[in-house]
Write a structure and sequence with these properties.
Layout lengths: L5 E5 L6 H11 L4 E3 L2 H7 L10 H17 L6 E4 L2 H10 L8 H12 L4 E4 L16 H17 L7 E4 L4 H18 L1
Parallel strand pairs: 1-3, 1-4, 2-3, 4-5
Length: about 190
């Protein structure tokens, strides 16, 4: 039996987050999977600009924080993305000067601290997912760098454990399952 945890999988687009979540959901059958805010908002009728504008990322940030806050006591949850994902996109957006980080920071930190583990899926040297021609590889790399800074350098002293995963899908799954197993032995 694994640890009872709240886990978020984070990373820039097209790094294999959703694939990892799907595989973890299969292996951790007692866990509930929460889809990423983009898809949940879309299902609720929210219309995103293409490419997403600053307000689209703010709406996803709001929704992500609500998901974490609403189910704060719930355990055995896998979140596809967390508020830090959207900070990464907002801080690298071409209109980032319009984003007031200080206005959001306390609530972002508070919601992140409801998590037991953040699994970071970085861009790897040999990219595992081919980018479509319309995707901006520089923007993707900027978001990846910003997320690495937020998660690994921890400038806001979030204090949440971060597991950076690498390798194939099965290697990534194994890394997370090993960490979840260690959590079970510690409790």
């Amino acid at each position: 039996m694994g640890a009872r945890m709240r886990i978020a999988v984070t990373g820039t687009h097209r790094v294999g987050k959703s694939t990892l979540i799907e595989a973890l959901g299969e292996r951790l059958a007692e866990y509930r999977v929460v889809d990423e805010p983009y898809h949940l908002l879309e299902e609720d009728g929210y219309e995103f600009a293409s490419p997403p504008c600053l307000e689209d990322f703010l709406e996803q940030l709001r929704h992500s924080m609500e998901l974490l806050e609403d189910g704060e006591g719930a355990r055995n949850v896998l979140f596809d993305r967390c508020p830090l994902d959207f900070l990464g996109y907002l801080l690298t957006h071409e209109e980032s000067d319009s984003f007031d980080l200080e206005e959001w920071l306390a609530r972002v930190c508070s919601s992140i601290r409801t998590l037991d583990l953040v699994v970071f899926v970085p861009i790897e040297e040999r990219d595992r997912i081919q980018l479509p021609a319309h995707e901006d590889p520089e923007r993707r790399a900027e978001v990846d760098e910003k997320l690495a800074w937020l998660l690994l350098d921890d400038p806001f002293e979030l204090g949440v454990e971060v597991l950076s995963v690498h390798g194939s899908r099965s290697e990534r799954v194994t890394q997370v399952l090993e960490r979840v197993g260690r959590g079970a032995r510690r409790r």
